[in-house]
Amino acid sequence: MKNSIKFFSLLFFLCFAKLYSQDFNKEELSYSEFLGYVKKYHPLVKQANLEVSNAQAKLMVARGGFDPKIEVDYNKKEFKGTEYYSLLNSSFKIPTWYGIEVKAGFDDTDGQYYNPQNRTPEAGLTSLGISVALGQGMFINQRMADVREGKLQLKLSDAERKLKAIAVLYKASEAYFEWRKSFNEAELYKSYLGFASTRFEGVKKLIELGDSPAIDSVEAKITVRNRQLNVENGNLKLAKAKLNLSNYLWIENVPVELEDHVKPEQNLIETVEETLKTDAMMVNVETLESHPKIQALETKLSMLEINRKLKANSLLPKVNVGYNYISEPVYFDSFNADDYKFNIDFSIPIFLRKERGSLKLAKLKMQDLKFDIDQQRLELKNKIKAQQTEITSLKKQKEVIDSLVKDYLTMLNSEEKLFSFGESSIFLINSRENNLVSAKLSQIGIENQFYISNAELYKILANPD
After folding, report:
1. What is the pTM of this model?
2. How far apart are CA 424 and CA 417, in angstroms?
3. By the 8 A CB rule, do 66 and 143 touch?
4. For residues 92 and 105, is the Cβ–Cβ distance under 8 A?
């Protein structure tokens, strides 16, 4: 039996491993594909989605204030064979909107000692009535406010979900761009290590033939050693970048590590703006009402407005009026308007200082939040414009560095031709090559800045969906 369990466990593992390899058995992991995995499977993004579920649960709690309610109050006393009293009070209440409550009840009293006002017919006493709040609670009360706030909480939670998700996606994008940068740097060092090694072997042959001084071999060997150090350092940075990227790469509930053969997207410069929707034509700085941060603040303002109305309602007197038609169960089919219970409750504080103070505080909170909303709108507009300016500048820098790399490559090729004619030296070739490598590293760095700048604009826009 145990062997069978082990066999099926191993079979399941192998099948899962095969599915996993199918998902990543490819040469390239594109940025859009990576971002899709993060959106769908990363635990922190899923955790952000719980904000909406939490708000839905709170709304259910608030709506519970309008649930019908059954109440039963039964008291009985019996001592030395004497039944002092047996009191039954039961009711079925239906709370409704605007402070109206419908109530049906049944009372039954028996025994030798009880309050005469509680006396009922032998079959008991039924009642059906309504209670209305004519002052406080008529247009808004705590139950109504809770439901309204619960509905607004759904909207607020969706905005907060977007803000939390966008923070994770931004960090994941940084990790991807760093992986791509480290990968390109490592490949650059490897290629120029190969060039330096080939040159070193060629110089040794020239020295053997007497066509080059022996010191050139030392110069070429130094270059090889420096390139080896660069390759080793580049591989270390690449390994760390891959591990950092793996923090954001999940499939279902399983974290995934990249295989060594998987490469980052190489034409990312052409697709990043489309993936992140950061193209200048797609970003409208003037319309920020759909921005999650503005939506969250506007929703909080609406919730404060509900609180203000509740505080303003407390300035009204408490006037509760109730009417209940009462009858014996057998007589309930015939209506007699003279059989009823009626009550009215009235109260109001003389100075209303507590109520007026609470209302003033509610208004001040709203005013404070309005100032915050205006400031947030201005800051968002300026941040978007600043980021767009940075992206435009980086595009121009990219054009310049591309031209510079091309010129350095021309200079290196020219120097190598002169060396083949015996009119140059290893020192000059190495100098030209070092300049070219530095320019290519700058090119990689500027590209990376361009990607990060787009990711920062994506974060500011906060639209992960």
Report:
1. 0.82
2. 9
3. yes
4. yes
Instruction: Look up residue 403 and give its two tokens.
Output: 């031209």
Region 28-63+144-305+359-461: CATH code: 1.20.1600.10
pLDDT in tens, 401-455: 999 999 999 998 888 888 777 777 778 888 888 899 999 999 999 999 999 999 9
Confidence of residue 58 (pLDDT cuts 50, 70, 90): confident
Cα(258)–Cα(187) distance, integer angstroms: 17
- Residue 114: both structure tokens together: 């009880």
Distances (CA, A) of 95 to 8, 68, 69, 146, 333: 58, 6, 8, 14, 25
The Cα 453–Cα 174 span in angstroms is 10
First-to-final CA distance of the chain: 49
Q: Which two tokens stand for residue 376?
A: 């947030």
Backbone φ and ψ of 408, nearest 5°: -65, -35
289 contacts 301 by C-beta, under 8 angstroms: no
How buried is residue 166: exposed, middle or buried, by Cβ count under 10 Å (0-12/13-18/19+)?
buried
Spatial distance between the Cα atoms of 401 and 345, rounded to a whole number of angstroms: 83
Question: Whole-number mean pLDDT of the chain?
Answer: 85
Contact present, 203 and 223 (Cβ < 8 Å): no
**From-to residues of CATH 1.20.1600.10 in the chain:** 28-63+144-305+359-461
> Which H or E element spans position 114?
none
CA angle 388, 372, 155 (to 5 degrees): 85
Backbone angles phi, psi at 325, to 5 degrees: -80, 130
Q: CA 294 to CA 462: how far, in whole Å?
A: 11
Q: How far is CA 86 from CA 108, 198, 364, in A?
A: 8, 109, 55
**Residue 177: how many other CB atoms lie within 10 Å:** 24
Distance in angstroms (rounded) separating the CA atoms of residues 435 and 328: 105
| Mean pLDDT on 277-305 | 83
